[in-house]
Structures are given as structure tokens and as C-alpha cells.
């Protein structure tokens, strides 16, 4: 897996980063950044903290609750 910093077409926030798998598939894309240094700093922060990351399934909170009618 690798991180890539790229230029976007957004003239006011021209930088973003993505995570690419070994097979070349993009698995995550960031928001846009004004400064390239900010995008790089966030990549470094994600790389440092990814080992302690946890998983949260928030879809459970978003699923509609169906009411039973008699």
C-alpha cells in the first residue's frame, strides 16, 4: 500500500492525497488542501497513527427502525 500526493483541478485547494493498494486500486481519497505541505503533513499523521486505528460501524446508527403495526 502506498500514499500519493496529487494536484486536483480545484484552483483554491489544489492538493489531495490518496491511498493506493498494491494492485493499483485507490482505496481512500482525502479532501483538498490549500498547501502541499498540509497534505504531506496529514499523510504523515495518518501513517503514524494507523497502527492504533480502531473500526467503527456507524451504519448501525443510521439504519431505519421499522415499527410493527397490529
Number of strands: 3
Rounded Rg? 18 Å
Largest sheet, in brief, is: 3 strands, antiparallel
- Oligomeric nature of the chains: single chain
Segments where pLDDT lies below 50 for 5+ residues? none
Structural class: alpha+beta
Q: Could you explain how this protein is built, in words?
A:
The protein is an alpha+beta fold and 70 residues long. It is built from two helices and three strands, in the order E-E-E-H-H. It has helices at residues 36-49, 59-62; strands spanning 2-7, 15-20, 26-29. The longest helix has 14 residues, at 36-49.
Concise overview:
This protein has 70 residues and is an alpha+beta fold. It is 26% helix and 23% strand. The protein has two helices and three strands.
List the helices and strands and how they pair.
Elements: E1 2-7, E2 15-20, E3 26-29, H1 36-49, H2 59-62
Antiparallel strand pairs: 1-2, 2-3
Pick out its properties:
70 residues; alpha+beta; 3-stranded antiparallel β-sheet; 3 strands; 26% helix; extended
Amino acid at each position: 500500500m502506498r500514499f500519493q500526493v496529487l494536484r486536483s483541478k480545484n484552483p483554491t485547494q489544489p492538493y489531495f492525497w490518496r491511498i493506493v493498494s498494491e494492485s493499483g486500486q485507490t482505496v481512500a481519497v482525502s479532501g483538498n488542501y490549500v498547501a502541499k505541505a498540509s497534505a504531506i503533513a496529514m499523510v504523515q499523521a495518518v501513517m503514524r497513527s494507523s497502527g492504533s486505528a480502531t473500526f467503527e460501524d456507524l451504519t448501525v446508527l443510521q439504519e431505519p427502525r421499522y415499527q410493527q403495526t397490529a
